[in-house]
Amino acid sequence: MKIGFALPQFHHQASDVARAGEFAAAIEEAGGASLWVGDRNLAAVRPEVGYGGRGNTIPEELNPAADPFVLLGVAAAATRRVLLGSHVLVAPLYPPVQLARSLTTIDLISGGRLLPGFGVGWSPEEYRAAGLDFTRRGARMEELLDALDAIWTSDPARYEGDQLSVPEHHAPLKPARRPRPPFYLGAMSERALRRVARRGDGWLPLVVVPGYVDVDGLVAQRAALDGLARAEGRDPAAIDTVLRVNIEAGTSTRQVADAIRDIHDRTGIEHFMVDSMYDVHTVDGSVEHARRVLELAAKG
């Protein structure tokens, strides 16, 4: 198994963002496999749609949010081995040229360790703040992936779609990973799973320990994804999985490690990312929490 951890980005941990490099180095030294960021451009005071597309509230833990690109750059410079991922960037909010530039820079700094994970998001207010149509976010995501592919694999590069237009331009600076960094995509709905099946290099599902761990649901979703991939003429084995493990307040490290091992044994998922922002409030506490999870998960 590979177990990674979220960088200090949200809630109380965001106040310790100056220690992100120290945190990254400590996780690598402890044996962590990867480091991760999420994405929250804003948390609306009176949201039309709530967290995860449900209800009409957003957890206060998401109110303070550090920049994901800066954090990944800091982590890239502070480490040598761990993978660096986003679970997930709300990619349609970003212009493709600027998104490609930021991710290319991070991938080059890290020597090709970037795992860019994208999702369409659930917040109408975030799209409104960016001057974009929330109802067309799925189509915009499709075009964004096409635009990134063009920018990362051709020089000169250009892209022309219904929502996005990138003029022909010089694009000699390419990511270290060739032909491009992999596309990891968040997906729960059938429509989103179809997008993963068509063009995803990886799938990014989610559980919450202990309140929402639906192993049978994960197995069923993966089976559906595999079937959709075959229908697209793709080998399902070419689509990786990284499972996000959010931890509820008051959850013991033993519970976290046991959940990871159980999910691994029942699903075959090999790569996990643990986010302790709801339960651990300091960088020191988060490092110690990560060390303990790694130790317990290894002992079995």
UniProtKB/TrEMBL annotation:
Its EC number is 1.-.-.-. The keyword Transcription does not apply. PANTHER family: ALKANESULFONATE MONOOXYGENASE, ALKANESULFONATE MONOOXYGENASE-RELATED. One of its GO terms (molecular function) is oxidoreductase activity. Keywords: Flavoprotein, FMN, Monooxygenase, Oxidoreductase. Signal peptide: none annotated. It holds the Pfam family Bac_luciferase. NCBIfam families: F420_Rv2161c. Residues 1-264 form the Luciferase-like domain. It comes from the Bacteria. This is TIGR03619 family F420-dependent LLM class oxidoreductase. It is an enzyme of class 1 (oxidoreductase).
